[in-house]
């Protein structure tokens, strides 16, 4: 196992004191402690295609430079997402989240299932959703307390994404907190306090399957509607899925619509407080919200990595990646690549090339809901700037225990009266 230090008081000192052969940047504690940055910085400078011989998920390659990540993410002939080879996460399971979905499929299986739900994210549909997002964001913000500390994650980030998930899926609105619960269970590290065993995870996710199958049966026997569940039920590519594939795609839509957006909502507020000059710039010109949204997504990088499996021997960065090797594309490192982003650790609301970020991936698996995620952030921040000159972060955030998702459990804030 890795000999990297478990408790890192000084991440930069630890990163440059640890021998490269002992680097294991997949350790969830690195991310929970927000200590990963200097380790990736050193890898980009000294060993951008790095082989880790021992980790909790076995040996793997770390791809840490922007252009190398794009190359791997776009080369679907050499690098596979297939669940039968391990899927898109470091730890091998029978399939991704134990249930196959279109994110963990290669062609020709991938595209038909992805296409089934793609109409939800077309521009005309997004335009229809904007008023709903604005109305709900405004209502959430108007209920926030003044002059007292509260958890932004629960009252804003989770609440808005939960409401929108219910709408997108056609899920009963009053049950929307179940969607958040299932998302948390699907992605939770066993040491994070959410679940204690894989058997417990499976049991809870079977509850999710049962509830959605009940709703599915209603959709199948009714005319097509505009929600994601109805799209799956009426598409030739997905209406005959088995239970495992069905649950896999439901979990993908829940996790994709929940974790990434909600953590960017929290990360954006944290970033503005970490860089008060940028917050002042935004207050002076609220129209900068449009430019700020991709910078939030770059700076936060809500999904830290995606995994691929090599289908053949590949030369990359002077290294020989062998057929069958695990390859982790560290988006969180590529988004800090100094050769692409000037002052990459800084949050700059009007960054010139923020839209070049890697957070949504490339190629056939590029995030399907990216425009919806951007729209939710844009609308929310437009509504925030109408109401509050400033929202103060008044304590350190509590981050989740995960190297896959860069997320928050708590972000204590205060809105001055």
How would you portray this structure in words?
The protein has 417 residues and is α+β, with helices and mostly antiparallel strands. It has one domain: Cytochrome P450 (Cytochrome p450). Helix 1 packs parallel to helix 3, helix 6 runs parallel beside helix 15 and helix 7 crosses helix 8. It is globular and about 55 Å long.
* Second CATH tier, the architecture: Orthogonal Bundle
- Cα-to-Cα separation, first versus last residue: 51 Å
Q: Give the CATH superfamily.
A: Cytochrome P450
Which CATH C-level class is it?
Answer: Mainly Alpha
Helix count from the secondary structure assignment: 15
- Reported by name, the CATH topology is Cytochrome p450
Secondary-structure content class: alpha+beta
**How big is the Rg?**
21 Å
Instruction: Please indicate the count of domains.
Output: 1
- The H-and-E topology, N to C, reads as HHHEEHEHHEHHHHHHHEEEEHHEEEE
Instruction: Count every beta strand, where a strand is a DSSP E run of 2 or more residues.
Output: 12
Unreliable parts: none
Explain the layout of strands and helices.
Blueprint: H1 11-17, H2 28-32, H3 37-46, E1 49-52, E2 60-63, H4 66-74, E3 79-80, H5 110-117, H6 123-142, E4 149-151, H7 152-169, H8 176-187, H9 198-220, H10 228-234, H11 243-274, H12 276-284, H13 289-300, E5 305-310, E6 314-316, E7 319-321, E8 326-330, H14 331-334, H15 370-387, E9 392-393, E10 398-399, E11 408-410, E12 412-414
Considering the chains and any ligands shown, give keywords for the structure.
5-stranded mixed sheet; 3-stranded antiparallel sheet; globular; Cytochrome p450; alpha+beta; 417 residues
């Amino acid at each position: 196992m890795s000999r990297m230090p478990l408790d890192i008081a000084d991440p930069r000192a630890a990163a440059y004191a640890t021998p490269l052969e002992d680097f294991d940047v997949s350790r969830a504690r690195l991310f929970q402690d927000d200590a990963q940055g200097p380790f990736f910085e050193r890898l980009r400078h000294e060993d951008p295609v790095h082989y880790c011989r021992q980790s909790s998920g076995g040996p793997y390659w770390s791809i840490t430079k922007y252009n190398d990540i794009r190359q791997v993410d776009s080369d679907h002939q050499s690098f596979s997402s297939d669940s039968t080879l391990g899927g898109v996460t470091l730890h091998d399971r029978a399939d991704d989240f134990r249930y196959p979905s279109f994110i963990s499929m290669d062609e020709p299986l991938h595209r038909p299932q992805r296409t089934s739900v793609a109409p939800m994210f077309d521009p005309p549909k997004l335009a229809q959703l904007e008023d709903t997002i604005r109305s709900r964001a405004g209502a959430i913000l108007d209920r926030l307390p003044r002059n007292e500390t509260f958890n932004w994650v629960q009252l804003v980030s989770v609440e808005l994404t939960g409401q929108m998930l219910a709408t997108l899926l056609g899920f009963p609105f009053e049950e929307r907190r179940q969607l958040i619960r299932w998302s948390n269970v699907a992605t939770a590290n066993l040491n994070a306090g959410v679940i204690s065993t894989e058997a417990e995870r499976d049991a809870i996710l079977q509850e999710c399957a049962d509830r959605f199958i009940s709703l599915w049966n209603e959709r199948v026997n009714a005319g097509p509607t505009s929600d994601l569940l109805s799209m799956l039920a009426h598409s030739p590519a997905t209406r005959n899925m088995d239970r495992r594939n069905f649950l896999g795609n439901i979990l993908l839509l829940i996790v994709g619509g929940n974790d990434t957006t909600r953590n960017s909502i929290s990360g954006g507020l944290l970033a503005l407080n970490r860089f008060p000059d940028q917050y002042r710039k935004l207050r002076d010109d609220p129209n900068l919200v449009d430019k700020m949204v991709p910078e939030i997504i770059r700076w936060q990088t809500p999904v830290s990595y995606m995994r691929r499996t090599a289908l053949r021997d590949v030369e990359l960065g002077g290294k020989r990646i062998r057929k069958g090797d695990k390859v982790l594309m560290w988006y969180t490192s590529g988004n800090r690549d100094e050769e692409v982003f000037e002052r990459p650790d800084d949050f700059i609301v009007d960054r010139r090339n923020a839209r070049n970020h890697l957070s949504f991936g490339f190629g056939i698996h590029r995030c399907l809901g990216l425009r919806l995620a951007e729209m939710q952030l844009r609308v929310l921040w437009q509504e925030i700037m109408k109401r509050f000159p400033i929202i103060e972060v008044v304590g350190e955030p509590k981050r989740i225990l995960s190297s896959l998702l860069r997320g928050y459990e708590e972000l204590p804030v205060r809105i001055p009266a």
